[in-house]
Amino acid sequence: MEEWSGRELDQQITQFLEANRLRMIGDAKGLIRINSVGQAYAPGSSHPFGEGCAAALDEAVRLMLREKLDVTAFDGYGVKGQLAAAGEQGKGSIGFFAHLDVVPEGEGWGFPPYEPFVRDGYLFGRGAMDNKMAAVAALYVLKFFAESSMKLEHGLYLFLGCNEENGMRDIRHFLSKHEPPLFGIVPDAYFPICYAEKGMLRADFEGEVKEGNLLSFSGGTDYNVVPASATALLGGVVPDHARRLLPPAFTVESAPEGVRITVQGQAGHAAFPEGTDNAAVKLAAALVESGLIQGASAVRALTFVKECFCSPYGHCLGIAFRDEAGAATSNAGAVQIRDGRLSLLCDVRYGVTQDCTDILEQLASAATRYGMQLVRTEDSPPHHIPKDDRFVVALCELANRQLGTDQPPYAMGGITHARWLPRGAAFGPLRRDQPSVFPAGRGGGHQPDEAIQLETLWDAFRIYVEAVLTIDKLLSEGEQPR
């Protein structure tokens, strides 16, 4: 294997970026223009996650073929592009794993979410940060090695899935048909490297809301997004009366049936509730406390929302916990009351040493106390790599050296494709040492006005190129990730 000095490698990367930055941005914009919010899972369909996700995968195939990669489609779940000239047969591969599906756009945007643009060094649009620009960066890492004289001892590929946000059936399907990589890089988090991801439990609650004046209630779009707004329709209520009983932050409008009440919250990712404000919980609490709601079942349903989700850290559900991965979190991500029934989609992120069985018992008990039912659960167990693993240490040192930081490997509540890989980790492209330039609740993944700083991506690209070389060398020396 040809060796390059650090200076030579840096020069090669600089030249490559100068030649390809605009193309990378253009490719990312093309992907962002596609509304790839996943739809209801349709097993057996050629488009199991809907037309938008299928269109995003079609665009990914086009880009991969343009770069002369060996392309394999995985039944509408994802697509793999393999660097044809990399590695020797039978030695195994290094894999990048990213996703092209996005969460629903929600409300409060300052511009159309699927019309991307660059301003002040940031690329804006739904999916810019999570995860389309990073997916393009990984594609161009393969392009870099295809065009360079540096030959790898192991294969190199990129897998792009379309169900990361809502079940991760994409990577599970891939691994059911393809051997796992010797080591997987997941560019869907922060540097320096994530060594542990919390468990994720999704829980569906239901209950009857038959009598009373609560005609409808709606807040939130999905499990893992903190609701940005919530609206309720009440019958037989005079608008001026409602305005006197509610705080000024609540909007009261006349409706044919009575009044429509709306409140804004602060959106964000369910796994990172700091600075968020759940609008659905806020509205439920205000309606109960004001006395505007009539009917025992309606009061009970909204009290369930108010009291069980009053804290994003599980205290009100009896599942508060903290370990090396941080505090457990709980989110009422989508709350609907319609046609006499409550539906609540709950996201729980729990510690790497926390017992999921205990959590399930607490959730079922909470539902019973309020006349609700826990009707469905889906668990994704925690992911953990030892901090002193040779690969973790090497990649952590690489990221810190390139970024001029001195940060330890970290654990997080966010979950990525890495949790399904026998050997892999979430590794950038974002930075934890730089504060956001956007107002609270804006500019991040799962938030309105989503954006990613382009300079961050160029730094990450350099790190990813060197990471491939580092992993390739460790594997050639006989190192095996633990």
UniProtKB/TrEMBL annotation:
<dbReference type="InterPro" id="IPR010964">
    <property type="entry name" value="M20A_pepV-rel"/>
</dbReference>
<dbReference type="InterPro" id="IPR002933">
    <property type="entry name" value="Peptidase_M20"/>
</dbReference>
<dbReference type="GO" id="GO:0006526">
    <property type="term" value="P:L-arginine biosynthetic process"/>
</dbReference>
<keyword id="KW-0224">Dipeptidase</keyword>
<dbReference type="GO" id="GO:0008237">
    <property type="term" value="F:metallopeptidase activity"/>
</dbReference>
<keyword id="KW-0862">Zinc</keyword>
<keyword id="KW-0482">Metalloprotease</keyword>
<comment type="similarity">
    <text>Belongs to the peptidase M20A family.</text>
</comment>
<keyword id="KW-0645">Protease</keyword>
<keyword id="KW-0378">Hydrolase</keyword>
<dbReference type="GO" id="GO:0016805">
    <property type="term" value="F:dipeptidase activity"/>
</dbReference>
<dbReference type="InterPro" id="IPR036264">
    <property type="entry name" value="Bact_exopeptidase_dim_dom"/>
</dbReference>
<dbReference type="Pfam" id="PF01546">
    <property type="entry name" value="Peptidase_M20"/>
</dbReference>
<dbReference type="GO" id="GO:0008777">
    <property type="term" value="F:acetylornithine deacetylase activity"/>
</dbReference>
<keyword id="KW-0479">Metal-binding</keyword>
<dbReference type="GO" id="GO:0006508">
    <property type="term" value="P:proteolysis"/>
</dbReference>
<dbReference type="GO" id="GO:0008270">
    <property type="term" value="F:zinc ion binding"/>
</dbReference>
<dbReference type="InterPro" id="IPR001261">
    <property type="entry name" value="ArgE/DapE_CS"/>
</dbReference>
<protein>
    <recommendedName>
        <fullName>Peptidase M20 dimerisation domain-containing protein</fullName>
    </recommendedName>
</protein>
<dbReference type="InterPro" id="IPR050072">
    <property type="entry name" value="Peptidase_M20A"/>
</dbReference>
